[in-house]
């Protein structure tokens, strides 16, 4: 990676570089995703935050956008380019191939891996797929690690947590191939995104979709991997985090902007989602 291709911020790098997490802003067209510091046999997870991208290995390409996750085996030929005028912001997680058996088990894959070249039968190894609200919440917390000597252990635990909440590939493939979500779930998602500060009730959303609220609740959990209330809280915390990070709002203003009339409830929700208070989050940035 060259400085004129992308800006990057190192969130974690262990001494032996076996675990590394970096945030990138790709504002020119292309750079090599694997550099000289990437050890042979590393496994990569790319997490899209903003903008669009195309990842390429040889003649094979895959697109990754906001709130999408994709997993690769490392290769010197792996490249990523911005897709469109907007810069592409993403997280890139590197970890050692020794963890591959655990990772591939979590991804539901069992084909052999050549540790010398880190080549597999499939590329990419998993994804890209849209992250669930639980996965998005975990990703949001990665920028806010506690400032302790155990930061590497904390990030390692987060990596394992991500594996634990990955949806089974068979379920993901069903939605990827069909591009299908139940119309009632689509309606609920649209309503929550459009009105997260003052959302309609589940009963109102269900009524508008022509089904009962319990039925919608079951469908939503089945197809998104979370509940409507947890999804709503994730939307609110993402927006609050952005407002605090950019300095647009103080804590009280951010709470009101995302629909909380109680500062105490907002602070509890924020801490449960990101692992620290909104005041700490504002001071960190």
UniProtKB/TrEMBL annotation:
Name by which UniProt lists this protein: Helix-turn-helix transcriptional regulator
Pfam family, any one: HTH_18
Report the superkingdom from the record. Bacteria
TM annotation in the entry: none
- Please give the PANTHER family that the UniProt record associates with this protein: REGULATORY PROTEIN PCHR
Q: Does the keyword DNA-binding belong to this entry? A: yes
Can the keyword Aminoacyl-tRNA synthetase be found in this entry's annotation? Answer: no
GO MF annotation: an example: DNA-binding transcription factor activity
Residue ranges of the HTH araC/xylS-type domain?
186-284
**Keyword set for this entry?**
DNA-binding, Transcription, Transcription regulation
């Amino acid at each position: 990676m060259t400085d004129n291709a992308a800006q990057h911020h190192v969130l974690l790098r262990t001494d032996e570089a076996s675990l590394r997490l970096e945030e990138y802003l790709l504002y020119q067209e292309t750079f090599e995703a694997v550099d000289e510091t990437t050890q042979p046999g590393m496994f990569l997870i790319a997490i899209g935050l903003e903008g669009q991208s195309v990842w390429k290995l040889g003649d094979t390409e895959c697109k990754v956008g906001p709130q999408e996750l994709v997993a690769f085996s490392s290769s010197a030929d792996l490249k990523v380019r911005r897709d469109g005028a907007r810069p592409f912001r993403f997280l890139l997680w590197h970890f050692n191939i020794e963890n591959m058996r655990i990772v591939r088990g979590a991804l539901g894959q069992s084909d052999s891996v050549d540790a010398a070249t880190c080549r597999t039968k499939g590329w990419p190894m998993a994804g890209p797929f849209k992250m669930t609200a639980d996965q998005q919440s975990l990703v949001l917390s990665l920028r806010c690690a506690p400032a302790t000597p155990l930061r590497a252990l904390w990030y390692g635990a987060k990596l394992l947590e991500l594996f634990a909440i990955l949806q089974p590939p068979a379920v993901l493939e069903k939605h990827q191939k069909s591009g299908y979500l139940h119309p009632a779930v689509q309606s609920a998602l649209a309503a929550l995104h459009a009105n997260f500060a003052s959302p309609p009730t589940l009963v109102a959303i269900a009524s508008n979709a022509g089904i009962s609220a319990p039925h919608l609740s079951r469908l939503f959990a089945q197809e998104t991997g979370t509940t409507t209330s947890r999804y709503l809280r994730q939307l609110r915390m993402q927006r609050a985090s952005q407002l605090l990070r950019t300095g647009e709002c103080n804590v009280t203003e951010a709470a009101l902007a995302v629909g909380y009339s109680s500062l105490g409830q907002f602070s509890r929700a924020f801490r449960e989602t990101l692992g620290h208070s909104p005041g700490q989050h504002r001071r960190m940035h």
